[in-house]
Specification:
The structure holds two protein chains of two kinds. Chain A is an alpha/beta fold. Chain A is built from eleven helices and 19 strands. In chain A, strand 6 (about 240-245) and strand 7 form a beta hairpin. The longest helix of chain B has 20 residues, at about 115-130. The chains are: A alpha/beta, B mainly alpha. Strand 3 (about 70) of chain A pairs parallel with strand 1 (about 105) of chain B, so a sheet runs across the interface.
Chain lengths: ~525, ~220
C-alpha cells in the first residue's frame, strides 16, 4: 500500500498502532506534515473487489475474532460487531453513520452531575467534524434539523429505503421530526486530493460486510491512500505485543509479531489506535501508562435497543443504506427520568444477522422460527443510540486464559446502570408506539449495547485519567492514544465521526508541540 | 445491528407467526441467478462452494455419538426432521469446532466452545433420561421438543448443567445453528432473499418495489 518502506532500524518519527477510525486520519495528517510514519495493522491488506463476497458468512474475516470473555449482567458481544481487523480496521464493516455529537453531550457532569465533562467544548471538535465530512464524503441533509448550524454536507442525502419510509410514517403520526441521516456513503461520485475517484453508493446494503465498490468512506479508500501518497508506510499482519523503553521511560521501539517472526520498529513516538479493548489490553500487558490505575476502567457501551416489526408492505430490508432515517428529538426528552439522551434510527438488516437476533432475542426455534423468517421481506427495525455513563463496575482486565499466541484473553465486564435501564425503557415504549403507528405487527424488542468506549480516559488530572486532553499519556511522554478509549463519556451519537475528528485534533496538537 | 445481545431477555410479544406473509421464492431461484452478471465473482465462489459442500458423515471434533445427538437437536431447532433438502447444520458446527476458530467472544460463564458443546450435548441426554427414562435419540419429536424446552427454560435436570448455564448454552447453540442454516442459499431462497445478486446494485429500494430479477414469491396468502 505504500511506496517507500522504512527499515525497522530507522528511527521513524511515529509508529501508529491500528489503521481504523482512530489511526488512519492521524496517520494521514502526520505524513502530510512531512513526518516519517509507519502504521502497524494486525489484520491483512484486502482488495475489496477481489476479496469481498456479498455474503455475511464469507465476510467473517473482517472481524476481530480473537476470543474475548464477556462478563457482567449484560455481557457485550464482540466479533461481528464492535471490532474489526484488516487495513482500515472497523471502518471496513461500520455502517458509516456520521452523527455529530451535540455540544451538551460533552458536558454531562455540568448539566446532570454525572459522568465526566470532556476537557474541551464542542467548538474544539467542530472544525474537525467539517474536515472529516468533506474528506471522506458524507451524504446528509442541509440544513441539518438538530444542533448548532453546520457547514453544508458535501453530498445530498442517500435515498430512503423501506425501513426509513416506515419510520418516517410512524414518526409523522406521533409528531416526531425525522430527517434523512448523514452517512459516509456517497450519494454521488466523489474524489478529494490523495484519494481515487469513488463511485456513488449502489444501495447493496452490505455496509456491515465490507463495501466492495469504494462508495463507503472506510479508511482503506480515504485516509490511508492519502497517508500512503504522503509517504506513510502501512504494514499489515503486524500484531503489536510490546515496547522497548529507555531508562527515562520513553518508548524507543515497538515490538510486533508478523508471519515472518517478531520484529521491532525503532521510533520517536507511538500512537495507540487499537480501539477500546485492544488499546487497554496492550497497555495492561506491558504495565504501561497506568499510574492512575485507570487503564481498562470506565468501559462504556451505548444503549442500543432495537424494535422490530413485520409490515403488510414488502420492505426487502437488505436494500439501501441500513440506517437511512434519523431523529434527534429524543436528545434531551422532556419526560426523561435519566441523564443524557438518545437518537432514533431506522434499520435495515441482512438475513443471517436478523435470524441470529431472532434466535438470541426471542429464542424462536423449530416451526416458529422458520415461519417467522419467511416474513423476512416484510421486516423493518428501528433502534436507538444512547449515552452510557462510566461506572467503576464496568472494565476490561486481562484474564488468566491464554489465546493461541500465548497472551491473556481480555475479560470485559459490563452491567447496565439505572440510567441505562431507564433510558432503554423510555426508548422501548416510544419505538413500540412508532412501529404500531407505522402499521407493524408482531412487534418485538431486542435490548443490546453497542460500541466500545472509554478505557483509557482523557482528562487533565493524572490521578483520574490515562491521557491528557491532547491524547498524550500522563506517564509516558512519547506515547499517545487516539481512539474511542479516550472518550470521557460515551456521547449520544455513533462514535466513528468523533473518533476521526479527535484523531485529527490529536495529530494537530502533537504537531503544534513541535514533534 | 448485530448479534450483540447483552443478555437479551426473551420477550416474545404476540404470536410469532400469526398473520405473517410468506415470501418463499420458487425453487431454482438461486440456481438461476448465481451464474448471471448480477453476482460478483467472489460472491459466486463463496455461495457455489457452500451449495456443493457434501454433508459431513464423519465428524472431526465431536465423537460419532455426540455428532448424532447434535444432528437430532439441530433438526428440531430448525424443523428439518425428514427434510429431503436438509441443510447440513451439524456438519458446519463440527467443522467450526474442529478449526478452533472462534467468533470473537463468548460468555465468560461458559467454558470454551468445544468443551461447552460436549458438556451441553451430554446434558441433553441426561435431561432426556431424567424426564422420560430414555436417551434423546430414542425419543419421538414431541418428547425431543419437551427436552429442548426444558433446556431453553434454563433449569433442566441433569448433572452436566451444574456448571454449564443452560440458558446461555442454549442461546449460543440456537444462534450458531440458525446462522448456519440461513447462510445457505436454499434457506435464503425459502425466505425470498436474493441480496447476493447485487453486482449492479439496487434501484428499487422503496416499499413494495421489486426489480425484474427478483421473482414473484410463491409463498402463502397476502
Amino acid at each position: 500500500m505504500s511506496r517507500s518502506p522504512f527499515a525497522t532500524s530507522d528511527e521513524v518519527d511515529a509508529v501508529v498502532v491500528g489503521t481504523g477510525a482512530g489511526g488512519a486520519p492521524l496517520l494521514a495528517r502526520l505524513a502530510a506534515a512531512g513526518l516519517s510514519v509507519v502504521a502497524l495493522e494486525a489484520g491483512k491488506a484486502l482488495d475489496p473487489v477481489r476479496d469481498f463476497a456479498r455474503d455475511e458468512e464469507a465476510q467473517g474475516f473482517l472481524f476481530w475474532n480473537d476470543e474475548r470473555l464477556s462478563a457482567g449482567e449484560d455481557p457485550v458481544a464482540f466479533g461481528r460487531n464492535n471490532s474489526g481487523t484488516g487495513i482500515g480496521g472497523s471502518t471496513l464493516h461500520y455502517t458509516a453513520y456520521m452523527v455529530r455529537a451535540q455540544p451538551a453531550d460533552l458536558r454531562l457532569k455540568t448539566d446532570f452531575g454525572v459522568a465526566e465533562d470532556w476537557p474541551f467544548p464542542y467548538e474544539a471538535l467542530e472544525p474537525y467534524y467539517d474536515e472529516v465530512e468533506a474528506t471522506i464524503g458524507v451524504s446528509g441533509p442541509s440544513p441539518y434539523p438538530w444542533g448548532p448550524a453546520r457547514t453544508p454536507y458535501p453530498l445530498k442525502p442517500l435515498p430512503l429505503n423501506g425501513a426509513a419510509q416506515l419510520m418516517q410514517r410512524g414518526c409523522d403520526k406521533l409528531g416526531i421530526r425525522t430527517s434523512p441521516a448523514a452517512n459516509a456513503a456517497l450519494s454521488g461520485s466523489y474524489a478529494t486530493d490523495g484519494t481515487r475517484f469513488r463511485p456513488a453508493c449502489h444501495n447493496c446494503g452490505f455496509c456491515q460486510a465490507g463495501c466492495a465498490t469504494g462508495a463507503k468512506g472506510s479508511a482503506d479508500v480515504t485516509w490511508l491512500p492519502m497517508a500512503a501518497a504522503a509517504g506513510a508506510e502501512i504494514r499489515p499482519e503486524a500484531y503489536v505485543t510490546g515496547f522497548e523503553r529507555a531508562p527515562d521511560g520513553r518508548i524507543t521501539a515497538v515490538v510486533y509479531r508478523t508471519p515472518r517472526g517478531d520484529e521491532r520498529q525503532r521510533c520517536r513516538n507511538v500512537f495507540l489506535c487499537a480501539g477500546a479493548i485492544e488499546t487497554p489490553r496492550i497497555l495492561l500487558l506491558n504495565g504501561l501508562a497506568n499510574g492512575s490505575g485507570q487503564v481498562g476502567r470506565n468501559f462504556m457501551a451505548h444503549t442500543g435497543i432495537q424494535v422490530w416489526g413485520q409490515f403488510d408492505e414488502f420492505v426487502r430490508p437488505f436494500k439501501g443504506i441500513p440506517g437511512g432515517l434519523i431523529s434527534e428529538d429524543t436528545h434531551r426528552p422532556a419526560d426523561a427520568d435519566f441523564a443524557g439522551g438518545y437518537l432514533l434510527q431506522s434499520i435495515g438488516v441482512m438475513p443471517v444477522t436478523y435470524a441470529s437476533q431472532v434466535a438470541r432475542g426471542r429464542r424462536l426455534w423449530g416451526k416458529q422460527l422458520r415461519a417467522h423468517m419467511r416474513g423476512y421481506n416484510n421486516t423493518a427495525g428501528i433502534n436507538i443510540l444512547g449515552d452510557c455513563l462510566p461506572y467503576a463496575h464496568n472494565f476490561v482486565e486481562l484474564s488468566d486464559e491464554l489465546d493461541a499466541r500465548g497472551l491473556p484473553k481480555p475479560r470485559v465486564h459490563f452491567t447496565m446502570g439505572e440510567n441505562e435501564r431507564r433510558m432503554t425503557d423510555h426508548a422501548d415504549k416510544l419505538m413500540q408506539r412508532i412501529w404500531a403507528a407505522a402499521g407493524a405487527r408482531d412487534i418485538w424488542s431486542f435490548p443490546r449495547n453497542a460500541h466500545i468506549i472509554g478505557t483509557a480516559r482523557m482528562g487533565s488530572d493524572p490521578d483520574s485519567s490515562v491521557v491528557d486532553p491532547d491524547g498524550r499519556a500522563h506517564d509516558v511522554p512519547n506515547l499517545f492514544v487516539s481512539d474511542n478509549s479516550t472518550f470521557p463519556s460515551a456521547l449520544g451519537a455513533n462514535p466513528a465521526l468523533t473518533i476521526m475528528a479527535l484523531a485529527l485534533r490529536t495529530a494537530d496538537r502533537f504537531l503544534a508541540r513541535g514533534a | 445491528m448485530d448479534k450483540d445481545t447483552s443478555a437479551a431477555p426473551s420477550r416474545p410479544e404476540g404470536d410469532a407467526t400469526a398473520g405473517l406473509r410468506d415470501h418463499r421464492y420458487p425453487e431454482g431461484t438461486f440456481a438461476g441467478l448465481i451464474g448471471t452478471p448480477f453476482v460478483t465473482a467472489p460472491t459466486r465462489a463463496a455461495l457455489t462452494a457452500r451449495m456443493a459442500k457434501p454433508a459431513v458423515t464423519e465428524p472431526r471434533f465431536l465423537s460419532p455419538a455426540e455428532f448424532a445427538l447434535l444432528g437430532a437437536v439441530c433438526d428440531r431447532l430448525l424443523d428439518q426432521d425428514g427434510d429431503d433438502r436438509r441443510i447440513d447444520v451439524p456438519g458446519a458446527v463440527d467443522a467450526r469446532l474442529a478449526s478452533g476458530e472462534t467468533d470473537g467472544w463468548r460468555y465468560d460463564a461458559l467454558p470454551d466452545d468445544g468443551a461447552a458443546m460436549k458438556r451441553g450435548l451430554a446434558g441433553f441426554d441426561e435431561t432426556a433420561r431424567a424426564l422420560t427414562g430414555r436417551g434423546f435419540l430414542d425419543l419421538g419429536p414431541d418428547e425431543r421438543d419437551r427436552v429442548i424446552g426444558a433446556v431453553e427454560a434454563g433449569d433442566p435436570p441433569g448433572a452436566a448443567w451444574a456448571d454449564l448455564p443452560a440458558k446461555r448454552f442454549f442461546e449460543d447453540l440456537l444462534a450458531a445453528a440458525t446462522e448456519s442454516y440461513y447462510a445457505h442459499p436454499l434457506a435464503q431462497e425459502e425466505i425470498g432473499y436474493a441480496g447476493y445478486a447485487d453486482a449492479r446494485g439496487w434501484q428499487k429500494i422503496e416499499l413494495d418495489q421489486r426489480e425484474p430479477r427478483e421473482p414473484e414469491p410463491v409463498g402463502g396468502p397476502r
